[in-house]
């Protein structure tokens, strides 16, 4: 596969219809970028590459050439500042800064403008109270309003974290189900002889790739990215007949360049600068369907086929495979529930209003007791109260691109690497790995391999197992356990102790 990211040499982007999906392709994708070149180092590939019936479809122009490039899309065209304040956070990176001094993941940038407003407001009230007229009121309101504010922020934080935790649970279930289903397909589904066995192998690989395609398509759906032309998805589902492929529009997946004012507004959390996350869905001129469910339909069809041809013959494994499909469907439903049922708007508006009313009333209550310290006191209180409210608002949707959102790219990459590990070797055979000389079946009591113990009697093996328990549970010193091991070993070898 050519992962250079260049358009086809014949200008496939100009000739392939953007909305009609991929046309049949018979040549290996490694020759995609050279299928019309007649000179150069790839001239010997001309005959095979010319077997392509039509140019490469537009959404297959840029394909990843490694797992790292496949699942780090958000960092391709971004600078260091953008990667620092936008996420999700890379779990592989480690910071040695104290937690209180870290900015990556902090809501401090989003509080700059609100805190500046509070600072100006508290300064104005303090100046008026000092030079013109005393505006202070009894600070009994601190106690009364503080209880209401604390209750509201507690409710906001708990509900937001519950949604964040639910999102993580569903993705954990997705990872677990992916592992189980891939093992059932790769190990428990047999392969027939001859050409049929080759076909079975390729179909197994297709099904396992569909498991990854399900996870990646679910990630994009949760982020309101409806196309199939993304680098991590095009190579997995481009050959499937889906609504998303029929609705493919190259302009949809090309992000518009942000102005410096819009970027600054997003960094500072200005609501007017934030785009509607569903804008790509609204721009679509064709039905988008439901790509994760369509991928799941293809997985289900594969399971039915292996049951029908007898390669998945054990009824228990058949039941497990069908159960895994139901679990994947549960993941889709659960994540959509988390995404589509935020805190009711009445609660969100009321909590925001309560927090701001409390912050704006603070200078009137603090001036009588603190004087000029009212200004820094109001700023500190505003940071605490508005900070908790902002955190609740940020993690309410755990599937987005904020630093504190769930790292869905990392989860998809984890699934991809684990599926690669599963398929890296044929299904293991018990007779092959059990009979190896370095299979120390009674380790650490004995370093004799399985073939050596196979020549002994069952009574000797059971005696050694009993001695192993005694050696491991001996209340004495390590030397006593070592002595027991030596005695048992000598007895089994029928050799006198030295």
TrEMBL record:
Q: Which keywords fit this entry according to its UniProt record?
A: Cell membrane, Ion transport, Membrane, Transmembrane, Transmembrane helix, Transport
Keyword flag Cell membrane: yes
Which segments cross the bilayer?
111-133, 139-155, 345-364, 370-391
Q: What is its main location?
A: membrane
> Pfam families, alphabetically?
Bestrophin_2
What membrane topology does the annotation report for this chain?
Multi-pass membrane protein
Q: Does the keyword Transmembrane helix apply?
A: yes
Q: Where in the cell is it found?
A: Cell membrane
Provide the species name: Aspergillus cavernicola
Q: What taxonomic lineage is listed for the species of origin?
A: Eukaryota, Fungi, Dikarya, Ascomycota, Pezizomycotina
Instruction: State the protein's name.
Output: Bestrophin, RFP-TM, chloride channel-domain-containing protein
Instruction: State the residue spans of region: Disordered.
Output: 1-52
User: Please, which domain of life does this record's source organism belong to?
Assistant: Eukaryota
Low complexity composition-biased segments: 7-24
């Amino acid at each position: 596969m050519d992962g250079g990211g260049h358009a086809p040499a014949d200008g496939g982007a100009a000739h392939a219809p953007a909305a009609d999906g991929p046309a049949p392709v018979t040549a290996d994708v490694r020759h995609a970028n050279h299928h019309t070149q007649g000179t150069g180092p790839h001239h010997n590939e001309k005959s095979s590459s010319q077997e392509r019936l039509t140019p490469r479809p537009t959404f297959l122009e840029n394909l990843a050439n490694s797992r790292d490039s496949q699942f780090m899309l958000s960092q391709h065209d971004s600078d260091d500042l953008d990667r620092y304040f936008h996420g999700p956070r890379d779990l592989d990176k480690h910071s040695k800064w104290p937690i209180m001094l870290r900015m990556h993941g902090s809501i401090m940038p989003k509080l700059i403008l609100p805190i500046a407003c509070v600072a100006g407001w508290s300064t104005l009230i303090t100046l008026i109270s000092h030079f013109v007229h005393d505006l202070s009121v009894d600070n009994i309101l601190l106690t009364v309003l503080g209880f209401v504010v604390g209750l509201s922020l507690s409710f906001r934080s708990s509900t937001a974290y519950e949604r964040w935790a639910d999102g993580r649970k569903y993705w954990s279930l997705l990872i677990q189900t992916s592992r189980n289903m891939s093992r059932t397909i790769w190990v428990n589904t047999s392969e027939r002889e001859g050409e049929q066995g080759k076909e079975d192998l390729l179909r197994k690989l297709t099904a396992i790739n569909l498991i990854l395609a399900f996870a990646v398509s679910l990630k994009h759906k949760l982020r309101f990215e409806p196309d199939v032309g993304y680098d991590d998805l095009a190579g997995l589902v481009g050959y499937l007949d889906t609504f998303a492929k029929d609705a493919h529009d190259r302009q949809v997946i090309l992000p518009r360049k942000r102005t410096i004012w819009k970027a600054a507004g997003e960094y500072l959390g200005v609501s007017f600068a934030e785009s509607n996350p569903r804008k790509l869905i609204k721009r679509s001129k064709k039905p988008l369907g439901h790509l994760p469910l369509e991928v799941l339909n293809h997985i289900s069809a594969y399971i039915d086929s292996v049951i029908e041809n007898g390669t998945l013959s054990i009824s228990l494994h058949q039941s497990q495979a069908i159960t895994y499909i139901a679990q994947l469907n549960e993941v889709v439903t659960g994540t959509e529930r988390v995404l589509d049922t935020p805190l009711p708007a009445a609660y969100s508006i009321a909590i925001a209003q309560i927090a701001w009313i409390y912050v704006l009333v603070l200078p009137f209550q603090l001036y009588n007791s603190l004087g000029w310290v009212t200004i820094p006191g109001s700023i500190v209180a505003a940071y605490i109260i508005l900070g908790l409210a902002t955190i609740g608002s940020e993690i309410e949707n755990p599937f987005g691109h904020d630093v504190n959102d769930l790292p869905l790219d990392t989860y998809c990459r984890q699934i991809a690497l684990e599926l690669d590990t599963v398929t890296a070797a044929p299904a293991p055979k018990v007779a092959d790995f059990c009979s190896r000389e370095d299979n120390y079946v009674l380790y650490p009591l004995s370093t004799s391999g399985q073939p050596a113990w196979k020549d002994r009697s069952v009574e000797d093996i059971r005696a050694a197992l009993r001695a192993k328990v005694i050696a491991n549970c001996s209340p004495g010193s390590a030397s006593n356990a070592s002595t027991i091991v030596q005695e048992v070993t000598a007895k089994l070898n029928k050799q006198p102790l030295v």
